[in-house]
Amino acid sequence: MNIESSVGKKIRQLRKEKGLKQHELGTTLGLSESYISYVEKGARVLSGESLHKLIQTFNLGENYFSNDSTMVQFRADASSLDPECNYDKLTADFFKYAKSNINKK
Fold first, then answer.
1. Are 3 and 75 in contact (CB under 8 A)?
2. Radius of gyration of the chain measured on its C-alpha atoms
3. Could you give the angle at the alpha carbon of 13 between the alpha carbons of 57 and 61, nearest 5°?
4. Can you give the pLDDT of all 105 residues of the chain as single tens digits?
5. Which residues, 6+ apart, have CB-to-CB distance to 56 below 8 Å?
6. pLDDT given for residue 44 in this prediction
7. What pLDDT, on a 0 to 100 scale, did the predictor assign at position 45?
8. Domain annotation for the chain: domains and CATH numbers
9. SS3 content of the chain, % helix, strand, coil (to 5)
10. Half-sphere exposure of 29 (CA within 13 A, CB side)
11. What b/e readout covers 71-98, taking b as 16+ CB neighbours within 10 angstroms?
12. Which among 7, 21, 54, 74 counts the fewest CB atoms within 10 Å?
């Protein structure tokens, strides 16, 4: 399973746990129902802004998507390419950047 499929699966699971239909989640994130469907299938990815909005809306931890086995493998692969890479810091920096840019709008 690739990262996009893994994240899409978690988004689908979260949406269903919250009792939302795809169009309702899409409205919340400013996306179409079909785009949410593609995300859930792993055919598309959420932008940083949409991902941040999802995390804020559902009060998720910033590491919500980084604890599954695919992301663990991704971190291992990234570390093998660049042993100096601090994946957790990179993820935290990404969310700080996303928050600061969203709050400016």
1. no
2. 14
3. 40
4. 566 677 888 899 999 999 999 999 999 999 999 999 999 998 888 887 888 888 888 888 766 766 555 555 555 555 565 666 665 666 666 656 655 655 554
5. none
6. 86
7. 82
8. 3-103 (1.10.260.40)
9. 70, 0, 30
10. 29
11. beebbeeeeeeeeeeebeeebeeeeeeb
12. 21
Query: Tokens 């996306």 sit at which residue?
Result: 31
Please tell me the predicted confidence (pLDDT) of residue 25.
Answer: 96
**Cβ-contact 55, 96 below 8 angstroms:** no
* Amino acid type, 57: T
Q: In whole angstroms, give the CA distance from residue 89 to residue 16.
A: 30
Q: How is 45-94 classified by DSSP, letter by letter?
A: ---HHHHHHHHHHTT--TTTTSSSHHHHHHHHHHHHH-TT--HHHHHHHH
Residue 98: its pLDDT value, please?
Answer: 58
Of how many residues is the chain composed? 105
User: Which amino acid, one-letter code, is at 5?
Assistant: S
